[in-house]
Amino acid sequence: MKTDKVFFSEYAIFVCTKCQKSITARTADSAPATDIAESIKSQWKTEMNNMGLKGKVRVMTSSCLGVCPTGFQAVTQISMTNPNDSLSYVFSPFEEANQVLETIKKSVTK
Fold it and tell me: Per-residue pLDDT for 17 more than 70?
């Protein structure tokens, strides 16, 4: 077995790809299921990198995070240094994604 260090040092942000199935069913949106999580991941990753957090914060997609909110998006923020800063968020990706991003940005820069 080989081990290696994690290359991000402070936070991992996981965007659930499974949530989209219930979101697209709720909204009758014909968009492919992976588009919502990928869109959030791309936007948030760009935002974190623009804030100079590359190497400190990693934004990734994940399969089920275990929150399972029907019709909503789940995102989990995991602190590599303080487990008390690890949280899950459940939100509407259409109305609340920017609000959740702002909350996460405050958390990872404090």
Answer: yes
